[in-house]
Structures are given as structure tokens and as C-alpha cells.
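Deadline looming. Please check this record:
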Amino acid sequence: MPVCQTLKTPFGNLTLAANGSGEIMGVVFGQAAALRARLGAGREIQAGGDAPVLRQAAAQIAEYFSGERKRFDLPLAPAGTPFQRRVRRELRKIPFGETRSYGDIARKLKTSARAIGSACGANTVALLVPCHRVIASDGGLSGFAFGPGTKARLLAHERKNA
């Protein structure tokens, strides 16, 4: 059974889930209930669980928020279609402190900005796969599951520490 742990961050609670294979399968800003909802109805997750990958993730996330870490190096196992996996690979290429538009990524993957937005919205490992670095072509911050305020704060944090 997957286990989860909630961390306190400067931007509120962040809850992570790990599967039995030692991979991170979900990350949300919020509590375990928000994680269960994000991963899908009926998903059982043991709250307060302990796993080596969760300890490793907690350490890397603390380094990120202290400005020491620019890239996460954790085993990930988010659910998703082959297209969503392609989009996540592109998102991980966006450098710390920088942004790309949905259209930029769409042109690179030869698809539509709407399809990129949908794939970003389905990202179950927020922060670790930086969907917050994707913005509208006019610079708008819409389209982040945890709200434009959190997205703005994450981007400001990264620009300050880039």
C-alpha cells in the first residue's frame, strides 16, 4: 500500500506519496485528503507512512526551499499516458528560475497548447516535475492546480535563488 507524509514548507503543507517500489507517485500542496483526490477516487494511501524515498524527498524539498537545490533527483512513478510522460520529460528540462509558455512546449512536441495545458493539469508530482514553470503566452499564471498565488510564489522563489 502506498504511504504518504506531509511536510511543512514556506508555502504551506506539501504531501507526498510513495509506492511500494520506493518511487514518488504523488505530490500536492495540501493534506493527505488532497493527495487521495488528486491520485483518484478509491486510492488507499497510508497517512504518516515512512519510506526511505520520502525521507530523501523531504531533504531535497527542504534544500529547494532554502535555495540550495535547483533540480530534484528522485525516483518518480506518476500515473499518466505516454503523451503525459513526454510532456513531463519536457517540463523537467525547463531550467530553475525560467519559464516556458504552453505554446513553446506545444511547438516543440508538435501538438496544441491546450493539450500541453491538459497534460500539465494531470501532473501528479507537482514541484518535482515543474509544471509551475509553464505560463500563458501573455505571461499569465493560470492553469496551476494549486492556484496562481502558489505558482507566483514558486516562480518568485526560483528567480530569487537562480
Summary: The domain at 82-161 is CATH 1.10.10.10 (Arc Repressor Mutant, subunit A). The first helix runs from residue 32 to 39. The chain has two domains: 3-65, 82-161.
